[in-house]
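During the second half of the funding period, the structural biology subgroup turned its attention to how the target accommodates small molecules. The most pressing case was dihydroflavine-adenine dinucleotide, which had performed well in the primary screen but for which no bound structure existed. We therefore specified the complex as follows and requested a full 3D prediction, including the ligand pose.
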Amino acid sequence: MTDISTDVLIIGTGPAGSATAALLSSYGIENMAINRYRWLANSPRAHITNQRTMEVLRDLGRDVEDEAYMHASHQDLMGENIFCTSLAGEEIGRMKSWGNHPLSKAEHQLSSPTLMNDLPQTFMEPLLFKTACSRGTQARMSTQYVSHEQDADGVTTTCLDRLTGMEVTIRSKYLVGADGSNSLVAEHADLPFEGKMGVGGSMNILFRADLSQYVAHRPSVLYWVMQPGADVGGIGMGLVRMVRPWNEWLIVWGYDINQPAPEVDAELATSVARQLIGDPDLDIELLSANTWTVNNMYATHMQKDRVFIMGDAAHRHPPSNGLGSNTSIQDGFNLAWKLAAVLKGQANESLLKSYSEERAPVAKQIVTRANQSIGETGPIFEALGMGAGVDPEVMAENLSALCHGTPEAETQRKAIQDTIAFKKYEFDAHGVEMNQRYKSSAIEADGQPEPAFEKDAELHYQPTTWPGARLPHCCVFDKVNGAKHSTLDLCGKGKFTILTGIGGEAWKSAAEVIAADLGLDLAVHIIGPRQAYIDHTGDWARANEISDSGCVLVRPDHHIAWRAATLSTDPTADLQRVFKQILGK
Ligand code: FDA
């Protein structure tokens, strides 16, 4: 018997599920999110929060964005990744990370109105979940997904109410599996995966201790420690991660995946902490400890008819590059507006297939990148003569040898500097975070060739209005009060938006016809002198790659659906053709 019904049922209230719920509720779509536990993340796993994710939060509202900054450690504090023999020991080298190199900082500032920051998952999840529930999401905690069956009209999901032990069935039009890396929804939907789970073993040790004396003079979120065992399992090296400056920490330390997972009790946790910090008398307040596995697996397809998977359910990888929660939230930004458009009758169900077309390549890209980053730590060990494992005596000798005035020592010093600098592919890979360009049935490029990347596409974001790319951020100014707005702020919020200029007024009347035909909320902004928004700096004119009378059609997720170089002879017919292609109507 069906007890409950909703339009979209979301399994999981992690970053993926809570973000999707918050977006759907903001778009006025009835949805329900369930979680098998009574509350949200109990440990601060994800923390690096990139600009693209902050744009999603900003789209949810400036209050949501501001609250994230309020809880986060500021980008400046994310500082430099430190490589050392222990926090109290010798520093081997460091690299400016997370947009803190002045050149990288400039690229960040030019790319987005938002700031990268360090927001532990224990703050991000409640923020997204609260936003969802306050806007209409029905949340059911202590409710465990068991199975689902779909038919032509919807999905019937069977759950276990863990408080009563009773079975609950929930009928929905669509089901979203945001149930993490052991996703049962993905398994039951029989979705295809490539790669391997459990390629390495790791333990997390969360504790409180004031470590200011070791770190406050060299702020960072990540302190990498090279010690015996640091090259076994884990994420490339021993890691002491700042959770709250400078008195809450998370250690990530590897174990051999071919051996049984160790039991991380207080004794083991304290000894690992003392060893990595380099203080044999350190007292820690242990908050929690657990083991987890490094995975290297991604879904090659993320939809089975009315069932979708997202987040770790679809991409399973180590935390290197800090992409997991970020990509999970961005999956939600891609799917939520599409579900809303279909449920509101504005789009045909064919729109939904673009979700997997667009996000499955991203899943593959980030899983590959994160695992590659672990491998790229190896050369630092080799540069220090540690190719065959870390031997403390050999390491001490090699570190001493670095001080010699010999050509060999100079070569080795350079090798260490180069291998650490190369870690920018993990710690300053702005292109990986921002360069997502979609190719799908929900994009109409009209055969225009994709612009080649002029710099390394993993390191540098390259703005373009080529259809499929994210709308470039430029500041434009309010005619009435001079206030500065990002072009991204003129778009989104669940709506399609047309940006045009002087001479493009006919796009506005064409848009009114389309909006009335499809029942769409379609915004049009004319940017130019004495218009509502003025491009005083000329930045938008330089970035938009169209003439003033042309237009850029932006999807609710800020990605460009289509563009016209100039005003066409029949703007209404053009928009009708494009919307038919995208929305199937
Ligand atoms: P997540 O696993 O978070 O949530 C799954 C949800 O589904 C939970 O609510 C769970 O209770 C629920 N669930 C599961 N099975 C269920 C069932 N049968 N019934 C009901 N509910 C069920 N990422 C990042 O972007 N930046 C970073 O810096 C880091 N750093 C980092 C460090 C460390 C040490 C780790 C281990 C991980 C990271 N990550 C990260 C990765 C990040 O934590 C991860 O990618 C996200 O939590 C994934 O979010 P999801 O919502 O997809 O799954």
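Two results from this model are relevant to the next phase. The radius of gyration is 25 Å. The mean pLDDT is 96.
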